[in-house]
Amino acid sequence: MDVAELFITAIRAREEKAKEVIISMTSDNFFKFAEAIYDGSFTECNPMAFFKDIKVQIQIKGVIDEKV
Questions:
Q1: Tell me, what's the pLDDT at 9?
Q2: Count of CB atoms within 10 A of residue 31's CB?
Protein backbone atom coordinates (compact mmCIF):
# COMPACT_ATOMS: atom_id res chain seq x y z
CA MET A 1 0.00 0.00 0.00
CA ASP A 2 1.39 3.36 -0.96
CA VAL A 3 0.38 6.78 0.37
CA ALA A 4 -2.38 7.28 -2.24
CA GLU A 5 -3.94 3.94 -1.28
CA LEU A 6 -3.65 4.94 2.37
CA PHE A 7 -5.73 8.07 1.70
CA ILE A 8 -8.34 6.03 -0.19
CA THR A 9 -8.53 3.49 2.65
CA ALA A 10 -8.92 6.26 5.22
CA ILE A 11 -11.69 7.96 3.27
CA ARG A 12 -13.57 4.69 2.80
CA ALA A 13 -13.19 3.84 6.48
CA ARG A 14 -14.67 7.20 7.47
CA GLU A 15 -17.53 6.84 4.99
CA GLU A 16 -18.34 3.38 6.34
CA LYS A 17 -17.95 4.59 9.94
CA ALA A 18 -15.45 1.82 10.60
CA LYS A 19 -14.14 1.38 14.12
CA GLU A 20 -11.01 -0.53 13.08
CA VAL A 21 -8.85 -0.77 9.96
CA ILE A 22 -6.03 -3.19 9.17
CA ILE A 23 -3.47 -1.89 6.69
CA SER A 24 -0.94 -4.15 4.97
CA MET A 25 2.14 -2.70 3.37
CA THR A 26 5.61 -3.81 2.44
CA SER A 27 8.46 -2.91 4.74
CA ASP A 28 9.82 -0.54 2.07
CA ASN A 29 6.54 1.39 1.87
CA PHE A 30 6.24 1.44 5.66
CA PHE A 31 9.67 3.01 6.06
CA LYS A 32 9.00 5.53 3.28
CA PHE A 33 5.76 6.46 5.00
CA ALA A 34 7.39 6.71 8.44
CA GLU A 35 10.20 8.82 7.00
CA ALA A 36 7.68 11.20 5.37
CA ILE A 37 5.92 11.68 8.71
CA TYR A 38 9.24 12.19 10.50
CA ASP A 39 10.71 14.69 8.05
CA GLY A 40 7.52 16.77 7.89
CA SER A 41 6.35 15.90 4.36
CA PHE A 42 2.83 15.40 5.71
CA THR A 43 2.58 18.64 7.68
CA GLU A 44 -0.34 19.99 5.65
CA CYS A 45 -2.06 16.74 4.74
CA ASN A 46 -1.19 13.78 6.96
CA PRO A 47 -3.14 10.70 5.83
CA MET A 48 -3.19 9.39 9.40
CA ALA A 49 -5.31 12.39 10.43
CA PHE A 50 -8.12 10.88 8.36
CA PHE A 51 -8.13 7.87 10.71
CA LYS A 52 -9.15 9.99 13.71
CA ASP A 53 -11.26 7.87 16.08
CA ILE A 54 -10.49 4.70 14.08
CA LYS A 55 -8.18 2.01 15.46
CA VAL A 56 -5.43 1.32 12.91
CA GLN A 57 -3.30 -1.82 12.77
CA ILE A 58 -0.39 -1.90 10.35
CA GLN A 59 0.81 -5.28 9.10
CA ILE A 60 4.25 -5.16 7.54
CA LYS A 61 4.98 -7.66 4.78
CA GLY A 62 8.56 -8.58 3.95
CA VAL A 63 11.80 -9.05 5.78
CA ILE A 64 14.26 -6.30 6.52
CA ASP A 65 17.79 -7.30 5.59
CA GLU A 66 20.47 -5.47 7.50
CA LYS A 67 24.17 -6.08 7.67
CA VAL A 68 25.72 -5.11 10.95
A1: 84
A2: 13
